[in-house]
Amino acid sequence: MVNRKALDPESSPGAAFGQRLRRLREERGWTQDELGVRMGCTGTHISAVETGRRPPTGRFSASADRALGTGEELQGQCNAIRHTALLEGFPEYVRQEARAAEIRLFELGIVPGLLQTPEYAAAITMGAVRRGAITEQQAEERLTLLAKRQASLERTPAPLVYAVLDESCICRPVGGNGVTAAQLERLIAFAELPSTVLQVAPFSLGERRSFDLPVTLLTLPDRSPIAYSESAQQGRLERDMRFVQPLLTAYHQLQAESASQAASVATIERLRKGTP
C-alpha cells in the first residue's frame, strides 16, 4: 500500500485505538471506504481515526463495533481514551523525555513533576481528585507514570536537566508544612547533582520574565530540539525549528535574568528553615 503510515500504539491512546481498528478492518479484507460504508461514514474519516489525526467518539466506536462484530471492544477502548488522566500527546512526550540528552523546564505555581517528592506529588494529585477534576483511578495513573519518569533520570549517561522555577513554585505551600519542607530539601539536593542546574526566576523580574506558561524543551541524542506544550485538552510536541528556536532563545534569556544556582539554593534554604 502506497504512503501507508506506520502506527505506534505506545505513542498515545488514540494511536492504540487506530492500530486496533486498522487490524480489525484488514483481518476482514475491507478497505477504509468499505468499512466506512458499513459504518455510515467516509473512508477519509476512517483513515483519520486509524492514523490518530482524529480522536474516536463514542458514536464512532459503537458503529465500528457493530460493523466489525466486536461486541463492545472498541467502545471500551474509546472510553479508556476519554477517561485517562493523561492528555493526548503526553505519552509520546514521555517517550522522548526518556531518551533526551538535555531537558529544560520552566514552571509556574508548582514544582515540576520530575522534581517532586512522592508526598508533594500525591498532595497535588489528590487535590485534583477532591475538586472532581480526576478520579482516584486517574490519580493513581498519574502518580505511577510520574514515578517511572523520575526513575528514567537515573539512566547512564544521565540527561542534563536545567530547571528554572518561578518564585511562586517555592513559595506556595502544598500538603502542609512537612510536605513543603521536604520538597524544598529535595530541590536543594537536586541542585547538588552533577548533571543539573536549578535557578529561581524571582518575582522582581516582572515583565522581563520570558514565559507566562510552563515550557518544556528537550534536546534529543541527535541534538535535534523539540518543545512540548499543553492546552486544557491536548498536549503537543513541536519539532518545527521555526517555532522551537524562539522558545530556546527565550529560555536562555530567562536563565540569564534568573538568580544564579547558588543564590537560588540560598533562597530555597531560607524558605525551608522558615517552615516549621
Structural features, described:
With 276 residues, the protein is α/β, with parallel strands linked by helices. The protein folds into two domains: 13-83, lambda repressor-like DNA-binding domains (434 Repressor (Amino-terminal Domain)), CATH 1.10.260; 90-112 and 153-273, Endonuclease, Chain A (2-Layer Sandwich), CATH 3.30.870. Helices cover 51% and strands 12% of the residues. It has helices at 13-27, 32-39, 43-50, 58-68, 73-83, 90-97, 118-130, 136-152, 167-171, 177-191, 241-257, 261-273, and strands spanning 102-107, 160-166, 196-201, 215-219, 225-230, 235-238. Strand 4 (215-219) and strand 5 (225-230) form a beta hairpin. Helix 10 (177-191) runs antiparallel to helix 12. The longest helix has 17 residues, at 136-152.
List the helices and strands and how they pair.
Blueprint: H1 13-27, H2 32-39, H3 43-50, H4 58-68, H5 73-83, H6 90-97, E1 102-107, H7 118-130, H8 136-152, E2 160-166, H9 167-171, H10 177-191, E3 196-201, E4 215-219, E5 225-230, E6 235-238, H11 241-257, H12 261-273
Parallel strand pairs: 1-2, 2-3
Antiparallel strand pairs: 1-4, 4-5, 5-6
Helix pairs in contact: 1-5, 2-3, 4-5, 7-8, 10-12
